[in-house]
Each structure stands twice: as structure tokens, then as C-alpha cells.
Amino acid sequence: MLHQGYQCIVTCIGSTPPHKGIDMLRDVKYLLWDVDGTLYKSKPDLLEAIQREIYVRIATGLSIPYEEARRRFLALYARLGGATATAVELGLDRRLVQEAVDSVDKTKYLKPDPRLRDMFEETLRTFTHMIITNTSRKGTIRTLEILGLSPNIFQRIVTADDVVQSKPNVEPYMKALDTTGSAAHQHVSIGDREKVDILPAKKLGMKTILVWGVSEAADVSVPTIYDVPSVLV
Ligand SMILES: [Mg+2]
User: Fold this and answer.
1) The pTM of the whole model exceeds 0.90
2) How far, in Å, is the centroid of ligand 1 from the Cα of 43?
3) With contact defined as beta carbons under 8 Å apart, do 185 and 201 qualify?
4) Chunked in runs of 10, what are the mean pLDDT values of the chain (233 residues)?
5) What is the Cα–Cα distance from 56 to 150, expressed in whole angstroms?
6) What is d(CA 208, CA 181) in angstroms, rounded to the nearest whole number?
7) Which 8-state DSSP code applies to residue 82?
């Protein structure tokens, strides 16, 4: 009943104590976390603020009206799945998206999350944690700071600054494998987007958990970030 086929959605499991985790995740030692939209539930107003900054920069960079910039970005983004990949495809600097993200004051949208901190420092303390994000190092550290998470929780933080190609490319995940030197199946990628957080990790043989939603491609889907321990421990 716990393991109906490959897909298991934690909401269907119920809470039969004690939790035993999910069998296919038993060997996992390394947890690779996406940050934005994963460590906090995606905020529509924050996303809109970031998107406005992206469109303004594309309009300026290509000398086209704002509306056209928006249209061209969205059309390409639907196909490519990554904002940075989209900017590059448009012939713009790959730092454009990072600069747009960093220009938004996240303290207006995010706040410290003691429950999240306890999850890392207590419930999941026996795992080795890493961050795999398409955001800049500066922006990532800032977000951790606002959420109340110490960067020391993470053995390695792989950001857009550390790779040639961001997710959905496999390069950021290869960095994690290089760091641990362990088999791919001992790693689990945890994120909110199938195209960037699930598919590339899966291609390398890693396990995958989609948070804040449901993914057919992921090994497990959980309704919130706080449900991740229930499938691991
Ligand atoms: Mg995300």
C-alpha cells in the first residue's frame, strides 16, 4: 500500500506511525536542495516582481518594447524551462536573470522559518546537505539569511556563479557528484520544478523528490517542504 508502483504521493500514505521512509530512498545520503520556490512556497508577488525586472532588462538589451520582451521571453521559456537559458537564447548576457533576481528586495516577501531550520538542524541532521540553485551566490546567501538558515548547514552550495550552464543542464548536479564521490543513487534532488530539478538529476541516476506539487517523473511528490522527512526517515 505504501509503494503502489513507481509513484508515491505522501498525502496518500496517511500517517501510520512510526514513519519508515520510502524504500527506494533508503540508500540516500546526500540531499541536494533547490532554493527558490522550494525552501519557501513560491510567492506569486515575488515572482511577478522578479519577472518585471527580467522583462525590463530584456527590453533594454534588445531595444524592444516591454510587452514584446515579455512575449518573447515567455514563448522561449515554455520550451527551454530555464530563465537563464532563455536569456542566453535571446542573445543576452547570462547574468541578466541573476541581476534581475538580486535587484528585488526579498525581505518584503520572505521571513524567518524556524520550522524549516529545525528540519535541517534536527530531523535531517544525519544527512549531508547541498544546494543546487540557478540563482547567484549573493542572492542565495541572502535568501538563506532571510529564512534563518546558516550556510554552514550545507557541505557545498552550487550556484549560477559556479557553472557554465545552469539547470536544466546536468552540470550543477555533476558538481555535486564530484564533491561527494559517491554513486548517483545515493543523492536525491529536491525541488519545486520538474523540468529543472527533477529531469536532469534523474538523467544522472539520482533519486528525486518534487515539493509543493505533484510530478509524474519524480520518485516521490510531497505537498510541502515540511513533508520531506516523512519520506526519508
Ligand atoms: Mg525552484
Assistant:
1) no
2) 11
3) no
4) 45 49 90 97 93 97 98 95 91 92 93 98 97 94 97 97 93 98 98 96 98 97 97 93
5) 33
6) 19
7) -
